Amino acid sequence: MKVLVTGGAGYIGSVVTQQLLDANHDVVVVDSLATGHRENVLAGASWHHGDISDAGEILDSSFDAVVHLAAKSLVGESVAHPERYWHGNIVATLKLIDAVRAAGVPRFVFSSTAAVYGNPVSETITEEHPTAPINPYGASKLAIDHMLAGEAAAHGLAAVSLRYFNVGGASGHLRERHDPETHLIPNLLTAAAGQGEAKLFGTDYPTHDGTAVRDYIHVVDLAEAHLLAMDWVQPGTHEVFNLGTSVGSSVREVIDAVKRVTGRDLPVREEPRRPGDPAVLVASGKKAKQVLGWTPHRDLDTIIGDAWEALGRPSGPGE
């Protein structure tokens, strides 16, 4: 297939591109490099330096699919500056969908998020869980889910929304490099490497150890789901799949795992909760397994070890 990958110079987008190329797809990456990195545009992929709003200049009837990963994704920023998320996520994606419709591209795979569920009312979140985002980031992603559902019903688009839980790990040199870096594991690894201290946001959550619980999924496992979804999508339908391991780990448990995998102690400073962060987010991956045939295989220690190695550090103790 010929596939447009938006955000293909980013962390997840570059790993998805890698897997598409390995599967012999023809890949075109569009990325503004606002948060992506030019060296993440892999050899074998064509690259268009621009915003997703410019997709109409790229898309034509030769394309078989769009995998849409480009987005603004910082929860705290979305609370402080929601307008950036209305424009950067909702308005820009609407323009992309308009271009998809005009070009007659039949398939659309969207990078959605567990943030659409807000504060969950059950321990394990299925796709039927009520959506009630508690921050503008989650609200913007949910709005796009609704846009795709309407587009599928009205115009026959084959669309899938993949709701990510917490993504980590690395694939070779392709790793998390956000600026600012707000994700737990890369910040803990930076502290383990002796470059500052990590922060633990919130110690008074209603969880077993007072810290937030998340479902951590390896980026390689996550990327594999995109290819399965692209092959599976059905014309005129919009389906939602949660992507997670169904296993929750608290922040303190992740800190302990980083110490165990790296063999290093690390400084951690406790801070108040961040606005917009729910206490627990753990996925049910049952639907993705049954429908897409997708199963994550890599555990938390593998996630941390691969990310540590990508930093050029050994993944075991005893340096």
Q: Could you characterize the architecture of this molecule?
A:
Helix content is 35%, strand content 18%. It is α/β, with parallel strands linked by helices and 319 residues long. It has 2 domains: 194 residues, NAD(P)-binding Rossmann-like Domain (Rossmann fold); 98 residues, UDP-galactose 4-epimerase, domain 1 (Alpha-Beta Complex). Helix 4 links the parallel strand 5 and strand 6. Helix 1 packs across helix 6, helix 3 packs parallel to helix 4 and helix 7 packs across helix 9. It is globular. It starts with a strand and ends in a 9-residue tail after the last helix.
The largest pleated sheet is described as: 7 strands, parallel
**Under the CATH scheme, which architecture of the largest domain would be assigned?**
3-Layer(aba) Sandwich
- Tally of separate helices: 9
Number of domains: 2
- Estimated share of beta-strand residues: 15-25%
